[in-house]
Design goal:
By secondary structure, this protein is α/β, with parallel strands linked by helices. Helices cover 38% and strands 19% of the residues. The protein has a five-stranded parallel sheet with strand order 10-9-11-1-12, sandwiched between helices. Strands 3-2-4-5 form a four-stranded parallel sheet, with helices on both faces. α8 (199-212) runs parallel beside α9. The relative contact order is 0.18. Bound molecules: iron/sulfur cluster. Iron/sulfur cluster binds next to α1, α4 and α8.
Length: 311
Amino acid sequence: MSEPTIVLLAAPRSFCAGVERAVEIVERVLEQRPHPVYVRKQIVHNSHVVADLEARGAVFVEELGEVPDGATVVFSAHGVAPGVRAEAEARGLAVVDATCPLVTKVHAEARRFAARGDTVVLVGHAGHEEVEGTLGEAPERTVLVADADDVAALEVEDPGRVSYLTQTTLAADEVAGVVDALRARFPDLRGPGSDDICYASTNRQEAVQAIARDADVVLVVGSPNSSNSQRLVELARRLGTEAHLIDDAAGLRDEWLAGARVVGLSAGASAPPRLVEEVIDALRARGPVAVHERRTASEFLRFALPPSVRP
Ligand code: SF4
């Protein structure tokens, strides 16, 4: 008998409270309202979640222009700029908002910081839907930076009135470096009352950190456009461990596993738990496997559903 491959399973992993709520909102709207039900943008950044809801009748669109007047439209977990809300209202669309409450918190901070006259520095990735939404709260007062080089190039109206916010799914260690650079340039810098990087991103990063040290290769289940999943892969690599993002079990490659005695496994906050089970099954089909879970935090958070979809 050959020695079993150890699968070191990171915990927490997979769905967070914001993703569970967003998916449940679409499921309920599909049950409760006449079809077609439209969803603006991918409800969460996972191809399997989107395909599953599509099969049940959801119609995913990129912009509100694709939604007929009077129809129901769900806003995705990543949030929307105020201009999108105004357009929906002007068009008489029935909006159900699946924005994660932790993204809504960042929007509220953007409004508050801008209202007191600060330049708001948003740390995040250009083009990501969450960033587009947050930027839209105070576009004339907000600037986007991705790294310390962007900070060095910043020009602000009043260096004594600068505050920062971050995208919720960034890597904590990388953001710390950017905030240090901001503070070095703007000593009076003010930040959010509590961290904008959400509990789910933080917990999944700490869990990957705990398995990466002991793994020969780390696999993260998630779609390529999932920010928090990408950060998990990068974090494992920064710790010196080979790491790969896979959408599902079909993404496994023999060359990654050849010679790996310990395979670390996690999943981003938008990846359904069943996909992790399927990866373990696929590993088992290649040879004996012993699964060990390493838990670094427990999660009990649940977000209430919007009143419009409650029974
Ligand atoms: Fe909300 Fe964080 Fe989950 Fe995004 S990753 S939906 S911000 S809890």
